[in-house]
Amino acid sequence: MSAVGVAAGRLPARHRAVAFTPVVVVYLALAALLVVGSVLVALDGGVLLDHGGVLNILTRSTVLGLVAIGQTLVIVTGSLDLSVAYLAGLCSLIAAETMAGSTAMVVPGVLAALAVAAVVGLVNGLVITVLKANAFIATLGVALVLRGYLEHSYTGPAGSVPRAFQHLGYDRIGPVPVSALLMLALAAAAWWYLRRTRTGYHMYAVGGDVDVARLSGVRTGRTIVTAHVVCAVMAGLAGVFLASRLGSGAPYVGTDAGYDLESIAAVVLGGTALAGGRGGVAGTIGGVLILATLDTIFDDLGVNSFFKDVVRGVVLVVAVALYARRRHTGRSS
Amino acid sequence: MTRLRLADGTAPVLVVLVVLLVALAFAGPAYSEPSGYLALLKRAAPLVVLAVGQYFVVVSGGFDLSVGSLVTAEVVIAARLVDGDDADTAWVVALLLGFGLLVGLVNGLVTTKLLVPSFIVTLGMLLVLDGAVFLWTGGAPRGALSPSFRVAGRGGADVPLLGQVPWSVVVLLVVVGAAVWFMRGPTGRLLVAVGDNEKAVHLAGGRVDRLRLLAFVLSALLATVAAILLAGFAGVSAQVGQGLEFRAITAVVLGGVLLGGGRGSVVAAAAGAVTLEALFSLLNLLGVSGALESAVQGVIIIAAVAYAARGTALRHLLPHRKTTVDST
């Protein structure tokens, strides 16, 4: 929670509104959701936040959290990455195939997956900055290329990870999965990176106004490429983690879960402006936890899974409408 | 200034389209006579109609990600309600148009009144529609379309010289013609102006909210038309609209329309859609496997957009030439 406090405090010249920054709102919403959800599940004769429930929420949050952290950096920079879902699938395959069941190959497998992810991120970034293609189209194009490769080369799950590596996916301390702690540590690192380093500040500057940033001496191209590389590596990590959970690589593990649009939804739910220049990782994690909690509540209540999509869509639009309203009234007063 | 001047950025996509059409003529014997190209236009018709709708939204500065799921929803609803009965066709078509109108109004009103970015609004609408369709059908659409419902997508009229002209091509031409007429009128020009500079339009007395609302309504209505064409052409399935929103946006961007609004012509957007379909046909004829098709598509999209963007960037570097460029 200290992260939330500092993030809120650092928003310039808005001290009177400190209590209701989107980050605070999203965690209040999460708390409200947990209370309401607990009551609903209790009325149904269950317990939401028991051992299994906490485990469920945190496990669901891990993969989406990893992807969404990267997506936050990219969106803050004023860009967008639609290729993360296919990239996660690709990286799960690369990791699993390199490991091929041998414990000795765990480190090379992870490194190979992350290296490929970094290259894909580099391509994304260079297409956007050097070829000046719109980020939406550039990453959609890269996503199509990855999809073509996956469809051409794989028909189903491939490769296998050694049992030792599956500990990453399944080990836990009490009800808290180790992987969720790792994800939160990475979130903290990303928060530090955005709020405490020069490149992080440059990302806000570029996302706020790319021309002003350039005229102020920020190397805008380099900043955008960095954001995309970090985002791709995070998606790669999500793929590696999925390989560890599944025991093998699966080509469509990322797209089946819709991590591309879902991660954007989590980021926006967390109060980051889609246009860039505003927001942060703390809110994103809140958004991810809200989505995971919603899923868990619906599972506990036995709600039809397609109904989840409907609710998710409504929640997303309502949340952003609330932020937009606040920002608008703030500006006009 | 001639009357038939090409809008800024239309030329590249037309060149690409002509090259593709010539390549098609060499690659496949079916393309040595008009009927082959008519068949291509028939396949392209739903995408062209969608692209025209998407154009209105994109040029006014928004996105419409909901059209793919809207197409699926409309097809599934139509199959369920018509259920093979010709007598029901008319009111179901009317109902579908009403449903499209409603979706467009919701998209537009949430975007303009609640100030939510259209990307998020239409993403939410996508989730809601997808979820609702599956909730309603349980994953497998039931019912069947009546023969009269499928005429628009399948049937055609006999025309001398050309042979059978599919109705979908007629619809395509009517939609594009109407869109060109609309964009040349005052409302169309204001729509582009909104995408270029919303504040300026507002200060000049333009009703920005109403214009953007109109764009979303038009997009949803045209998605309904595309759904009727697709239902006739391809039949009922729960995947019929999958990925169409990205394809329509790709077509629009391929036509040189600027994402973010304010630049681009509707003819170019339609040409972008035909180009995309011609590209798929060509890849098919050349025996590129379906799997690699999307990879090739990805590379070509990036190349086309990069080319267009570099062209614009170069023009911006030479501001004194801007007037001459505009008047060509």
List key phrases describing it:
heterodimer, A: 333 residues, mainly alpha, two-stranded antiparallel ribbon, 75% helix, disordered N terminus, B: 328 residues, 2 strands, 73% helix, disordered C terminus
Q: Would you spell out the secondary-structure blueprint of this structure?
A:
The complex is a heterodimer of chains A (333) and B (328).
Chain A (H helix, E strand, L loop, with lengths): L1 H9 L11 H22 L7 H26 L7 H16 L6 H24 L5 H19 L9 H8 L1 E2 L2 E2 H19 L1 H11 L1 H6 L4 H27 L6 H4 L2 H11 L11 H21 L3 H28 L1
Antiparallel strand pairs in A: 1-2
Helix pairs in contact in A: 2-14, 3-8, 3-9, 3-11, 3-13, 3-14, 4-5, 4-6, 4-11, 5-6, 5-11, 7-11, 8-9, 9-11, 13-14
Chain B lengths: L9 H18 L6 H26 L7 H16 L6 H25 L4 H20 L9 H8 L1 E4 L3 E4 H18 L1 H11 L1 H6 L4 H27 L9 H11 L11 H20 L4 H28 L4 H6 L1
Antiparallel strand pairs in B: 1-2
Helix pairs in contact in B: 1-12, 2-7, 2-10, 2-11, 2-12, 3-4, 3-5, 3-10, 4-5, 4-10, 6-10, 8-10, 11-12
In short:
The complex is a heterodimer of chains A (333) and B (328). By secondary structure, chain A is mainly α. Chain A has helices at 2-10, 22-43, 51-76, 84-99, 106-129, 135-153, 163-170, 178-196, 198-208, 210-215, 220-246, 253-256, 259-269, 281-301, 305-332; strands at 172-173, 176-177.
Structural features, described:
In chain A, about 75% of the residues lie in helices and about 0% in strands. Chain A contains 15 helices and 2 strands. Chain A has a two-stranded antiparallel ribbon with strand order 1-2. Chain B is mainly alpha-helical and about 325 residues long. A two-stranded antiparallel ribbon of chain B has the order 1-2. The longest helix of chain B has 28 residues, at about 290-315. The chains are: A mainly alpha (about 325), B mainly alpha (about 325). The interface between A and B is large, with 44 and 43 residues.
